[in-house]
Amino acid sequence: MLTMGSGVSRAKPFGFDALARIVYVHAAMSLVVLTSVLQHALQRGGQAAAVSAGVGLVIAVSGCAAMVGVARNRSLRALVMLRCLLWVTVAKVGLGLITVLRTSDSATAESLRAILLNEAVLIPLAIYWSRRIHTTYLAAVAKT
């Protein structure tokens, strides 16, 4: 609860630090995986996969920067950016899932598992960081 007595408490919302760390770990894992995908796509000449991996790399780095802005600098602007990046990533991964389901090669099952695991992490993160309590908390911290 953010309100206590006569003033506003600066207590962090439940799970704030833990879920910030999950965003960092997810971004780091995304950087590793997407760098590998980009390297293989460039070797094979797959332009669509290379562009998708490149966009994913930009989103991962931007998401990490936004998370730093939220967790350390208590920036409302960074929170808005983080929310947008998380939901864009959910949509991008969803489109990747549709693409993988349309193809029928030997790597489909492995790709499908990786995509579903990614979505299983991303959707709860996007929902958590979209909660209004974070805006209220960051606004209260900014006023003090």
The top-level CATH class is Mainly Alpha
**Average pLDDT for all residues:** 86
Q: Could you tell me how far the N terminus lies from the C terminus, measured between alpha carbons in angstroms?
A: 17 Å
List unreliable stretches of 5+ residues.
1-8
CATH topology: Butyryl-CoA Dehydrogenase, subunit A, domain 3
Largest sheet: 2 strands, antiparallel
Note the total helix count: 5
Find the count of extended strands (DSSP E, 2+ residues). 2
Strand content: under 5%
Could you explain the architecture of this structure?
The chain has 144 residues and is mainly α. 80% of the residues lie in helices and 3% in strands. The chain has a two-stranded antiparallel ribbon. Helix 3 (76-102) packs antiparallel against helix 4. The chain is elongated, with a radius of gyration of 18 Å. Mean pLDDT is 86; it is low at 1-8.
SSE topology sketch:
Blueprint: E1 3-4, E2 7-8, H1 16-44, H2 47-71, H3 76-102, H4 108-129, H5 132-143
Antiparallel strand pairs: 1-2
Helix pairs in contact: 1-2, 1-4, 2-3, 3-4
Short description:
With 144 residues, this protein is mostly helical. The protein has helices at residues 16-44, 47-71, 76-102, 108-129, 132-143, and strands at 3-4, 7-8.
Provide tags for this entry.
mainly alpha; 5 helices; Butyryl-CoA Dehydrogenase, subunit A, domain 3; two-stranded antiparallel sheet; 80% helix
